[in-house]
Design a protein that fits this description.
Blueprint: H1 3-13, E1 20-21, E2 23-26, H2 42-55, E3 59-63, H3 69-81, E4 86-92, H4 95-105, E5 111-118, H5 121-128, H6 132-149, E6 153-158, H7 165-178, E7 182-187, H8 194-207, E8 215-220, H9 227-236, E9 241-244, H10 258-267, E10 274-275, H11 283-294, E11 311-312, H12 315-323, E12 342-343, H13 351-360, H14 367-381, H15 389-398, H16 405-428, H17 446-457
Parallel strand pairs: 1-10, 2-3, 2-9, 3-4, 4-5, 5-6, 6-7, 7-8, 8-9, 11-12
Helix pairs in contact: 1-8, 2-3, 2-11, 3-4, 4-6, 6-7, 8-9, 12-13, 14-17, 15-16
Length: 468
């Protein structure tokens, strides 16, 4: 049985078929900032917090106040200025951390102290050098102290997925008794696989006294690339809070990506019948803001908000997209705030996409003219990463003996208009100048163009069948 079948079984057994709300706990400002090179000043954190508020997240973890004066200032600024969501501050299970967290949060409209303490033997023995009993007492006492300041208290047993299940159950019971309102189960080192993580959540729900009084949360890291899958498995097993970050940034390989969690539940309600308060149309703008603040770009093939998430180059894909976007897009770019779909013209593109781009440039080519341009386009595309508008216009100017005077006349002013930009962009662009191609003295393409002409003269297929 696959992991998805297993956790769907948990959902069915526990009557989770009706849509239920999942709390989105954003930790971009805390765990996300711990990603190397992604630190933020207090005013940058405040700027991003305002946008997370507009995005609709339920909880913003603003920082770790004991860590530095700057982080304390950032948490206090967010707490005082962002009023709708819960504002959380992280604290180790020790007196000074909890007090410092409360001092930063006391101006918040909805404060939460988030306490944590490792529970795995490897952490207890090698990092903390304390016994299980000391761990249990420290967790209980710190939650009680936090509760004396703040009604909303969260506890996280760090490295829960590598902890002894029986000891983990004891600690969770102790913190619930001490007043914790949320129990977060972290896969701190990204070790778990989905079926295993779902089983852990389900075991805690079955065996921990008082678990029904609290919200179960999941905080998954991406060391094996399973953070989002593990988080969704946890929801299927009964977790109702997910801790995540914009763009999936965070320690080492990062955290579960907020945008992927939200859109998976939105696109597949048949499998994930859960709702969130996130306004998905704001996902891309917030992602872009985070990249601007940290100076860390989003990988091009990143799901949902990457540069290529709504870009298509393969001819058969472009042909399908032109006829009906549903053929290759399972959500609209507008639904996540992306301006629109991009049809990238490259060596895998077909006539339909080239024809559409020519129309967008104001050039109405008949079928024979489009074939003539396409033959030379294929040769050019084989020698460059992607074909730009200026290069399409240059192609038409070089084959004026084959295109009608009306097409050449329509292209001429556009060629003139981009000539200045041409010189600039060629100096900084990785695309191949037409003149640099082989046999440029023979119309820019020489023998290659002649071969292409002969091959395509008898070829009837509309587009290359790439990327099936």
């Amino acid at each position: 049985m696959s992991w998805i079948s297993e956790w769907l079984g948990y959902a069915e057994e526990n009557n989770l078929s009706e849509p239920q709300n999942v709390t989105i706990f954003d930790t971009t400002l805390r765990d996300g900032e711990q990603s190397p090179g992604c630190s933020m000043t207090w005013d940058e954190k405040l700027r991003l917090a305002h946008q997370l508020d507009l995005l609709g997240v339920d909880v913003i973890e603003a920082g770790f106040p004991i860590a530095s004066e700057g982080d304390f200032r950032a948490v206090r600024a967010v707490a005082q200025n962002v009023r709708r969501p819960v504002i959380a501050a992280l604290a180790r299970c020790c007196h000074d951390d909890v007090v410092r967290a409360w001092q930063a949060l006391e101006g918040a409209a909805h404060p939460r102290i988030h306490t944590f303490l490792a529970t795995s033997d490897i952490h207890l023995q090698h990092k903390l050098k304390i016994s299980r009993q000391q761990c249990l007492e420290q967790a209980r006492n710190s939650v009680r102290l936090a509760k004396s300041f703040c009604e909303d208290v969260e506890f996280s047993p760090e490295d829960a997925t590598r902890s002894d299940p029986d000891f983990l159950r004891e600690v969770v019971e102790a913190v619930i008794e001490a007043g914790a309102t949320t129990v977060n189960i972290p896969d701190t080192v990204g070790y778990a696989v989905p079926a295993e993580f779902a089983e852990l959540i389900q075991t805690l729900r079955d065996r921990v006294r008082g678990i029904e009084k609290v919200t179960i949360s999941a905080h998954c890291h991406n060391d094996l690339g399973l953070a989002v899958a593990n988080s969704l498995a946890a929801v299927g097993a009964g977790a109702r809070q997910l801790e995540c970050t914009i763009n999936g940034i965070g320690e080492r390989a990062g955290n579960a990506a907020l945008e992927e969690l939200v859109m998976t539940m939105r696109v597949r309600p048949d499998r994930f019948p859960y709702s969130t308060a996130v306004i998905s149309e704001r996902l891309f703008p917030v992602s872009q803001l985070l990249s601007e603040i940290t100076g860390t770009p989003v990988q091009p093939n990143k799901a949902i908000i990457g540069r290529n998430a709504f870009a298509h180059e393969a001819g058969i894909h472009q042909d399908g997209m032109i006829k009906n976007p549903l053929t290759y897009e399972i959500m609209t770019p507008q639904s996540v705030g992306v301006p629109g779909t991009r049809l990238v013209l490259g060596k895998h593109s077909g006539r339909h996409a080239l024809g559409l781009r020519c129309e967008e440039l104001g050039l109405q080519l008949d079928r024979r003219e489009l074939d003539q341009v396409y033959r030379l386009f294929v040769v050019l595309a084989d020698n460059t990463k992607s074909v730009e508008d200026r290069q399409i216009l240059e192609l038409i100017s070089k084959i004026d003996s084959r295109c009608s005077p009306r097409v050449v006349a329509a292209a001429a002013p556009r060629i003139s208009a981009v000539s200045k930009d041409n010189r600039t962009s060629q100096a900084h662009s990785s695309s191949t100048p037409i003149a640099a191609l082989p046999n440029a003295d023979r119309g820019g393409y020489g023998a290659a163009a002649a071969i292409a002409f002969e091959v395509h003269e008898t070829e009837q297929q509309e587009d290359y069948l790439w990327g099936v």
